[in-house]
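Q: I'm writing up a methods section and want to include an example of the input and output format. Could you take the sequence below and give the corresponding predicted structure tokens, formatted cleanly so I can copy it straight into the document?
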Amino acid sequence: MLEAREALSHHHETLEALTVDPVQQGFVATNAKTFRQWPHEKGAEVFGLWDGSIAVGLMACIDLRKSDELMPEDDPENAYLWRLMIAKGQQRKGYGRAALTLFENWASARGLVRLETS
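A: Here is the clean output for your methods example:
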């Protein structure tokens, strides 16, 4: 069962070691890059995606009501799925679909009913 756990500093090394398939590398930022950018993204929360004791991916969400870098097309009442990666070897197991449900639950808990991604 997939869980989203706050990406605590003692898990960064494990989460940074996760990579995607080489053909996907141009579409997904590395987890290390996400950790570097996270402090500069107001309203952002970053989660390790875990199946029990196994790290399978990373998810970063932004409450756009708190962001100070909105694009003209952004609705500040939305929840934004900033980053989502499922590691090579863990794909095609339903983790991506489960992560989207976790994102929806994260947004709902904050009173955000509209979801946005890139």
